[in-house]
Write a structure and sequence with these properties.
By secondary structure, the protein is mainly β. Among the domains are: 77 residues, Laminin (Ribbon), CATH 2.10.25.10; 39 residues, Laminin (Ribbon). The chain is 7% helix and 40% strand. It is elongated and about 85 Å long. Its main location: secreted. GO terms for molecular function: calcium ion binding.
Length: 197
Amino acid sequence: ATCGHGCKYGECMGPNKCKCFPGFTGKTCNQDLNECGLKPRPCEHRCMNTHGSYKCYCLNGYMIMPDGTCASSRTCAMVNCQYGCEEVKGQVRCLCPSGGLQLGPNGRTCIDIDECSTGKAVCSYNRRCVNTFGSFYCKCQLGYELKYTSGRYNCVDVNECVTNTHRCSLHAECLNTQGSFQCKCKQGYRGSGFDCA
């Protein structure tokens, strides 16, 4: 079994056939599966899709039970939580459906934690952090693209001179560099490389 494009979140089962791990989809298993859109719906009340998974939470006035169902709770209704609540030793506490969210100053609504600016997120070399509501993901740096090479996914340099995505003058030569490019005016011309006269 060989899969030329690789199986990012899955296993190669036959010639270019991937079997995706739960929570992922696509020919190369590189796309997140939105479990919240599946029938039957995985959550009783509300659903939040996450990378490779999902989280269930309840409508206001209900609390999430250990089995993931929602039970009516008078105390929860009184607290008026955004994403349901839990009762611990008689104390009512509002919940947030993801580790990338935290309770706001009012103790009822959830606010996003920007993992990229707090330094909680660690992206490997050549990747930059992109914050999302409740989470984050790592994306290739500008000038690089995700490619499947030597058995794994890597961010490789885009050769702007070959892909013709440079802005060099017609009278300039394009020189590819790591993550970028340079323009040099041809012999007999002078200028910045973007403008040559």
